[in-house]
Amino acid sequence: MSSATADSVPLRRRLASWVNRVRGREDPNQRAARQHRSFDAMSGILAWMLSHAGERLQPAGRPRGRALEIGTGQFMAHAAALYVCGYDRVLTIDRYRQVVPSLVRASLETPVLARRLLSPHVDHDNYVARLRRLETTQYDLGRLAETGVEYRAPAEASALLADDERFDLVFSYTVLEHVPPSEIPGLLASSSRLLAPGGVALHLIDLEDHRDPRADPFAFLSPIGTWSDEACGERGNRVRRSRWRRYFQEATSLNWTFPYAPVRHDAPLPARLATEFQGLEETDLRTSALLAMAVAPRAD
Ligand SMILES: C[S@@+](CC[C@H](N)C(=O)[O-])C[C@H]1O[C@@H](n2cnc3c(N)ncnc32)[C@H](O)[C@@H]1O
Known about the structure:
By secondary structure, this protein is α/β, with parallel strands linked by helices. It has a single domain, classed as 3-Layer(aba) Sandwich (Rossmann fold). Helices cover about 40% and strands about 15% of the residues. Strands 3-2-1-4-5-7-6 form a seven-stranded mixed beta sheet, with helices on both faces. Strand 4 (about 165-175), helix 10 and strand 5 form a beta-alpha-beta unit. Helix 2 packs parallel to helix 5, helix 3 (about 40-55) crosses helix 4 and helix 10 crosses helix 12. Bound molecules: S-adenosylmethionine (SAM). S-adenosylmethionine binds near residues 73, 75, 98, 178 and 179.
């Protein structure tokens, strides 16, 4: 993905969306905004991820400080949910300018479950007040920034180090698997240095082949030849669990835990594996997601 220009990805998406409209087909992004990228669905994921941090976060009802999301995507649902959960400042950055305001509105249109799902992290009155505040912006990026939810793209985590701002939460969801391996140590090192003392890092990495994750989640482990940056963007970078653990441990000075690392047995591994995966344990190959968590030391 990093070989594309900052504008080329949205342009391709806009073109595909226009072709779908002309052909009378439902735009898959609109469908995603109402289904797995809806505010409801993303609130469920956020609540689950935050629950792993437990008491390391400020309790519900207390100001939670500043959150940084790396990899906004098109829908901004996690940035909105972080704000609703009590982060007064949410900076959400993306390497590519991908946000589509109509998709943001579609994702946030009719939340039904979010107030229940987020209830461990925000009391009901605050949930309603904060969501209303977001609604009054009509999800216009300029007006959102006035509430504290700032979208910055194209932007890189490393560029934020030049500012003094540090974050109580550094968060990403299904982003790191798209980063080309040569760039992973740099991104992990910078994003960890952006944590405030006592700040929490939470990253969910999807380790499945994004081409057909339901039926063939490990297809990309077969010998395919050079795995380009574009393939990392489209299907994932193929990095397996043991390698991720080493990246986290070696690129940062934090003590990482991995409280969620499911192993899938319902789908086949390729008959032949690419050389770099030969010799890895089967559970390593079959791990289909990884939640990485660390807490920055508090200043003495
Ligand atoms: C699969 S999307 C997920 C977006 C969002 N987190 C969501 O779940 O809807 C991955 C996003 O990460 C962004 N991304 C990839 N590498 C990045 C990097 N090094 N820094 C910031 N964003 C990055 C991509 O541009 C893309 O928007």
